[in-house]
Amino acid sequence: MSKLPKEHQFLDLSDYGRPLAFLIANRLKTTIFTPIHVTLAFTFCGLLAIVSILNGFYWSALIFLIFKSVLDAADGELARLKNTPSHIGRYFDSISDFILNLLFMLSIWQITNVSIYLVLLAFIGLELQGTLYNYYYVILRNRHDGDSTSRVFENKTPNALHGENQQTVNILYKIYSYCYGPYDRIIYSLDKNAIKGKYQPNWLMTAVSTFGLGFQLLLIGLFLVLGIKAYIIPFFIGYSLLIFVFILIRQLLNK
């Protein structure tokens, strides 16, 4: 189930797991399993990937990273199929991703001789890449009446939806803000007029989708099985420079 109307869909390179995610969600839609259960499952897959990395089982790590990405898409699909939108589910999903991303980077640090400062720089780059992708994607979805469970600006606590506890929403929103707030502010300051732009071509969104978490994790897994683990951290640091390239392209297209 796409988050965009058909005429505005683009090739999302980070969303390769969507077809399998839809099949999983379809199987679960009449069961007692909820999107939160699926989020817990992808968190477990992420932890298994980390254990595999630390123990040198790189093919296993690649498989778990890919399946983690599939389940990361499946929780949202299940929420849409069951018509159970949830702020709690959305924030829990994002917080889980943030923690896992940090652990992924730290596990790479453990198996290489890279400086911890470079690892933290790569993590910051990883998060900024994902933030730019999400920023442009959410703008596109809101502009064309697509899925609107995410907000362009997460600058205030939302009201709890049906079946949610407001206090739980408040707590998760605060944690989410601590995790992602600094990155949101940086990306917004770099391209604050993106929401006013009228032209966001599909080819640009496809290029920016390489910043999506699914594609990032696929690259990490491939670097591991190809025996070039030492290049993972330098790659994500250098790849972050494309943030400025993509922003410049979007701004030039909307002059």
From TrEMBL:
Biological process per Gene Ontology, one example term: phospholipid biosynthetic process
Keyword field contains Transferase: yes
InterPro entries for this protein: CDP-OH_P_trans, CDP-OH_PTrfase_TM_dom, CDP_ALCOHOL_P_TRANSF_CS
Pfam families, A to Z: CDP-OH_P_transf
PROSITE patterns documented for this protein: CDP_ALCOHOL_P_TRANSF
Transmembrane segments: 40-67, 115-136, 203-225, 231-249
Similarity remark: Belongs to the CDP-alcohol phosphatidyltransferase class-I family.
Name the record gives this protein: CDP-alcohol phosphatidyltransferase
The species this protein was found in: Maribacter aquivivus
Lineage, uppermost ranks: Bacteria, Pseudomonadati, Bacteroidota, Flavobacteriia, Flavobacteriales
